[in-house]
Design a protein that fits this description.
Layout: H1 2-14, H2 50-60, H3 73-76, H4 123-132, H5 141-149, H6 152-162, H7 169-180, H8 191-196, H9 205-215, E1 234-235, H10 244-247, H11 249-261, H12 266-270, H13 279-282, E2 291-292, H14 314-322, H15 342-353
Antiparallel strand pairs: 1-2
Helix pairs in contact: 2-7, 4-7, 9-15, 14-15
Length: about 400
Amino acid sequence: MRRLAFIAMAFAALAAAAWAPSPSPSPLLGPASLASLPAVPVPAHNPMSEEKIALGRLLFFDARLSGDASTSCASCHLPQHGWSHSEALAPGYPGHRLWRNNPTVLNAAYFRHLMWDGTLDSLEIQARSAMQAPVEGNGKAFMVEMRLRLIPDYVERFRRVFGSEWPQLDDAWRAIAAFERTLVSDPRQVPFDRHLAGDRTALSPAARRGLALFEGKAGCVQCHHGALASDEGFHALGVPRQQLFDSNPRVQIAVRWQNRQRDVPRAVYRNRDEDLGRYYRTRDPADIGKFRTPSLRELKYTAPYMHNGVFATLREVVDFFDAGGGETANKSPLLKPLGLRSEEKTDLVAFLEALSMERPLLVAVPELPPILPLDGVVSTDCAAPAPAAKGSL
């Protein structure tokens, strides 16, 4: 509870200021610069409170929101893996394998468009989508809502937070989103943020050289700028094909199912066995293969990288961009060979790591309240939390 109180107080301090997205680069003024994270934006329809955050934390780790009570938000967004997943492609619901690398929840509160293709616009919608999608949470709304109503502790918590007689599923997504809005970088722990605040000793000599490359020769700042180190735009880079697309039948099925359930035209569907990216939202052929520019914050803890998890290390990512990206239709004209020397690549990686906190953000796995069936016998089935990560607070 002391940890939760700290989170709530920290959030209240952050929320005191207004947030505005970073500007796009101007062709006249050159690319925008990097910046520190401002206050977390909070939607008017879902104000924050300590009790709501506490409820959302429980629900984030509760697998009973899924179809067979096996999969929680934390199944794919593990605190000890940077609130992402260490595997190249997310595991998904039992029997499935997803087709994308798992984006981290860290700092997701700042993005205007969520997911690699930008199809979702809020954390509340994302929570609902993930827990109800057949290949992710597979939770049927009426069944999950009834489960929540058979947990007396949840009934009381929902009543206090939302004023409802019984837990409502839409309120569950609001609570989860509120908790996720506390999962943000602490600028006091981020060397680059301390550097921006005037601490000239915060960056190592290698990181300072890397910053100069980032803003100059390497040109990273063209797409990675602002507080998130992301333009929130969509670009086709020619990222190498993920080998699991060819070797894992479940991935092949998931990709084709994705295309069908999103009503991709037959001519496109039959000739594509890869993720179509931004095209799912716009239906513009010029957007095939384009994915959202990821934030560069907390990279130290969120490997592997890219939308398909094809790169295991930051050095591999730097090598890819140094070569000018890969070959693909709709490729971004910003990509071109950089001619970086080996020591320059090392410096660039040092700077990228300086955009992460010096210690990972870990939260202890909570003890979940038990179900109390109608016969009055307490059941702890499905309520036991997963083992806590080493070093959890």
